[in-house]
């Protein structure tokens, strides 16, 4: 984020502070961020396949946090910019990249999505915004920024949590209070988004929704998988049409 990003209104200081307190544990696969480590191979392979290969693509990861997805996309050969409003998380991301010793095309910036969109509209082949929309006051604004950042014909990848009784039971009660997969208070049920709502935000931003796929957690073998069940966690792929009206 540059200096002006601090004035962006689409951020919740409580959310930023919450993740700041845990930032030093971001790359510990057995920490509160274990679910992100567990699902990362799934979402990485899905993105890689859906965009025809990340290698050589210019990618921006909106809400990159500590860099788990951003770094893995860069390792696949993408030129990645990771942006976030969490200073501590970005510090951890930069430190992990340095300590890895890998020569990756990866840059982290402290800037809001809306400000980045004003600065670099249409600059990216791929835009990712994963596990972030349920943490911002105005998810539609974030989707608009993602649509502005992608070039015509480029892909936008989003993920969030559905809003229904099952999602509340699994994502809040189960994950935070029973299974201890996440710290209590991680999610605010009122900010969950139904697929129809997120699809509408995409269409209003000029994006064409190509795919909606669910992500499920198996209680018995403690693994995640992608499939047809979008009732709790889901991912969405959209394209900015190369020609208006497509």
UniProtKB/TrEMBL annotation:
It catalyses: a 3-demethylubiquinol + S-adenosyl-L-methionine = a ubiquinol + S-adenosyl-L-homocysteine + H(+); a 3-(all-trans-polyprenyl)benzene-1,2-diol + S-adenosyl-L-methionine = a 2-methoxy-6-(all-trans-polyprenyl)phenol + S-adenosyl-L-homocysteine + H(+). It is an enzyme of class 2 (transferase). GO terms for molecular function: 2-polyprenyl-6-hydroxyphenol methylase activity; 3-demethylubiquinol 3-O-methyltransferase activity; polyprenyldihydroxybenzoate methyltransferase activity. Pathway: Cofactor biosynthesis; ubiquinone biosynthesis. The keyword Secreted does not apply. GO terms for biological process: methylation. Keywords: Methyltransferase, S-adenosyl-L-methionine, Transferase, Ubiquinone biosynthesis. S-adenosyl-L-methionine binds at residues 43, 63, 84, 130. Coiled coil: none annotated. Its EC number is 2.1.1.222, 2.1.1.64. O-methyltransferase that catalyzes the 2 O-methylation steps in the ubiquinone biosynthetic pathway. Belongs to the methyltransferase superfamily. UbiG/COQ3 family. This is Ubiquinone biosynthesis O-methyltransferase. It comes from Sterolibacterium denitrificans.
């Amino acid at each position: 984020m540059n200096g002006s990003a601090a004035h962006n209104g689409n951020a919740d200081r409580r959310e930023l502070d919450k993740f700041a307190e845990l930032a030093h544990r971001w790359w510990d696969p057995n920490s509160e961020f274990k679910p992100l480590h567990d699902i990362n191979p799934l979402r990485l392979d899905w993105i890689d396949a859906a965009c025809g290969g990340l290698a050589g693509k210019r990618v921006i990861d909106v809400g990159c946090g500590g860099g788990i997805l951003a770094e893995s996309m860069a390792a696949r050969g993408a030129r990645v910019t990771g942006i976030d409003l969490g200073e501590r998380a970005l510090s951890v991301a930069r430190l992990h990249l340095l300590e890895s010793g890998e020569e990756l095309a990866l840059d982290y910036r402290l800037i809001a999505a809306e400000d980045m969109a004003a600065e670099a509209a249409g600059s990216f082949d791929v835009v990712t915004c994963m596990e972030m929309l349920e943490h911002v006051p105005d998810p539609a604004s974030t989707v608009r920024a993602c649509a502005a950042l992608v070039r015509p014909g480029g892909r936008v990848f989003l993920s969030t949590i559905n809003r229904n009784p099952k999602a509340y039971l699994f994502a809040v009660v189960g994950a935070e209070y029973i299974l201890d997969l996440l710290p209590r208070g991680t999610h605010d049920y009122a900010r969950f988004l139904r697929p129809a709502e997120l699809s509408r935000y995409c269409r209003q931003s000029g994006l064409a929704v190509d795919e909606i796929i669910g992500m499920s957690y198996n209680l018995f073998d403690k693994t995640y998988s992608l499939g047809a069940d979008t009732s709790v966690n889901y991912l969405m792929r959209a394209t900015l049409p190369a020609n208006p009206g497509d």
